[in-house]
Amino acid sequence: MKKTEARPIKKTTGVAAVPIVLPAPSIEGLVDPTTYPGLVSREIADKNFLEVEIPVWSPASTIAARPDTLDIHLDDIGDFQSGRISSEPIFFTSPIPTTHMVNIARRFLTEGTHTLSYRVISFGGNDSGSSEAPLV
Known about the structure:
The strands form 3 sheets. Strands 1, 6, 7, 9, 10 and 11 form a 6-stranded mixed beta sheet that branches. The chain has a 3-stranded antiparallel beta sheet with strand order 2-5-8, with no helix packed on it.
């Protein structure tokens, strides 16, 4: 009988991490982003929707039959595992804009400190996440 060497079993835990390579979203109506990061003015907070600008990634889909998926996350615990408040298939027509406006319903915006981020899954399966933007 031939002797074989024992090899350790490699265990993988959880899902592979989503790389954070995209810039943070830009929130409209901040009081003073430098002095008070993420603080939204009362006038903006009272509106039905909060407008958020998402910088358009590269390469962005331009084919309707092969859209990318844009997920918006509020208070994600990490690696885009929780807090998804919207998900939409998205593609752009020429000329491709530099930003994409997303409306976040007021019902998601409770009092307190939050973080806002987004995730893009390209049609080919590439996965990219953004840095978090503070929201108060």
